[in-house]
C-alpha cells in the first residue's frame, strides 16, 4: 500500500474536497432571500398555478453587483441560479398546459411537431396539426399546408400536404387557430401583403382573415373563405389563444387598425390608440361569420384583448387606476359581464393578469419589514374576491440595505 | 492490480510536474489576495488621509473591495489557465514521451504481461485524477483565501460575498466548479470523453503513422459528429425530433 501513497493521497483529497463541497451545497438552502405567498383570506388553491416574476439585486456602492430573476409562488422562491440547467432539461420543459397535455398523451405524434398549441385540434377520433413550413410564403414556390393527423382509434399517424390557394398574393401567412368538426379541419389564418416603400423597406400593406376548410377523409381543400378582405392598410392582426382542452365552435380573429400616417419607428406601438378594432367570429358548425366593431360594442375608444375561456372573450379598458373587464359571450353575442377593479398605484405596469374567469392583481406596496406586497384574485365575471395573499419574506429581518426585490409581473403556468 | 500499479506508476512520473502546477496555483492565488488587498488598502489610506474621509465614506465614494474582484485578476486567472494548458499538453505528452524518450520505453510497457487496455485506462485515469485534484485544490483554497482576505481588509472597506456567489462571479470558475453536481458530472463527463477520443486518435497515429493521422482525424470528426448529431438534426430538419431529456440519452 505504501507504494501507492501518492496516487491514494491525490485520489482521496479529490473525493473529499469535491464530495464535501457538493454535499454542503445540496443541503444548504439558497443564499438568497426566500419569499412566499401567505394567505390573508380566501382559497389558497386559486394561486396554485400563479407565480410572481421578480428580479433580485444586490448592490455594492450603488452599482448592481448581482442580479437574478426569481419566481415567487405559494411554495416558495425559485432563483434561476439555484436551478440546475441540465436537471431542468432532464425533467423536460413545461411550456404551457396545452403543450404538456399534448406531449403527455401523444408523445410519438408530438415528436418533431413542436409549434404553437393553437395549430393543434382534437376530437374524439382525431388529433390534427396544421402547419406551414415557411410562413414567408412569397419566397417559396411550394407553399403549402402540411396536415399531420393521428387516428386515435387505429393509433395511426398520417400526413398530407395541400397547396395554399393564391399564396403568391401574400407575403406572410400565419395560422391563428385550427379546429375539427364534422370530418373537416378549419384553419383560421391571417394573411399579410407587403410592398416596398420609398426607402426600399418592406411595409405591410394589407391584412386579411381567412378560413380554409379541409376535408379530412379525402385530404382535399374544400373551400377558402375570406372573412375580411383588404382589412387595413396599417394594423395588427392576431388570433386569440384558446385552449385545446376546451371545445367551442367559435374561431376568433382580431384586427386592430392604426392611423396610417407615418410614425416615428421608435414610438412604441402600445402607445398608439387604434382607430378601429374588429373582432371576427366564425362558427365552424353553422359556417356563419360575424364582424364586430369592439369599440362600439363596449362604447370606448380602445380595448385590450385579455384572454378567452370557452365561449367568453375577455376584453378590458383602463382608465387611470380603474380596470374594467368585459366578458363578451360568443354564443349570445353580447357583453355578458362587466366588472371594474381598482389597480394599485404603486406598480408601474403589468399590474394585472386576466386568466379567463380569474383576474389577478399585484401590488408592491410594502408593509412593515416582512410584507413586500399583495396578490389578489377576483372572479372576473362577478367581481367576487377569491383570494388575497401577502408576498412575505421568511425571517423577521427583511432585506439588507443593499438588497432589492422588484416584482415584474404575474406568471400563469 | 496491474491496472492500479500502472496508475500509480503514471502518477509518479507526472508527480513533479503536477506539484509545480499545484505550487504555482497556491502561491499565485495567496500572493494575489495579499498584494491586491494591500495595494487597495494603501490607496484607500492615502485618499482617506488626503481628503479626511472615513472608511465607510471612502467605500461609498470609491467602492469597496471584494474577493470576487481579486478573483478576476491575473493572480487567479493565469495559474488556472496555465494548469488547463499544462494538463491539455500532458494529454499528448503522456503518450509521446514513451516513444520519444532516450530509450523507447513504450516497448517495455507494451510487453508487460497484462492487457494493453490497462495502459490506456491507466493513462486516462492519471489525467482524470490530476484534473479533479486541481479542482479539489481550488475548492480547498477558496475558503482559505476568503479567511485571509477578511483578515487583511477592514470590514468597512470590503464586500463580503458568500462562497457560491464567488463562483458565479468568476465566469470561468462556474464551468470548472458548477453549482450543481449534475452539471459537474456532465461538464467533466464531456471533458473526459474528449480525452478518450484524443487518446484513441493518438494511438491511431502511433499505429499507422501518416495514414494514422488521417484515421485519427476522421475518428475525431465522426465522434464529434455522433456527439452533436441531435443538434445537427435539429439544424437541418428545423424540427425537434428528440425531446429535451432524450438529447442526453
UniProtKB/TrEMBL annotation, chain A:
<dbReference type="InterPro" id="IPR011047">
    <property type="entry name" value="Quinoprotein_ADH-like_sf"/>
</dbReference>
<protein>
    <submittedName>
        <fullName>Uncharacterized protein</fullName>
    </submittedName>
</protein>
From TrEMBL, chain B:
<feature type="transmembrane region" description="Helical">
    <location>
        <begin position="117"/>
        <end position="142"/>
    </location>
</feature>
<feature type="transmembrane region" description="Helical">
    <location>
        <begin position="75"/>
        <end position="97"/>
    </location>
</feature>
<keyword id="KW-1133">Transmembrane helix</keyword>
<feature type="transmembrane region" description="Helical">
    <location>
        <begin position="15"/>
        <end position="35"/>
    </location>
</feature>
<feature type="transmembrane region" description="Helical">
    <location>
        <begin position="216"/>
        <end position="236"/>
    </location>
</feature>
<keyword id="KW-0812">Transmembrane</keyword>
<protein>
    <recommendedName>
        <fullName>Yip1 domain-containing protein</fullName>
    </recommendedName>
</protein>
<feature type="transmembrane region" description="Helical">
    <location>
        <begin position="185"/>
        <end position="204"/>
    </location>
</feature>
<keyword id="KW-0472">Membrane</keyword>
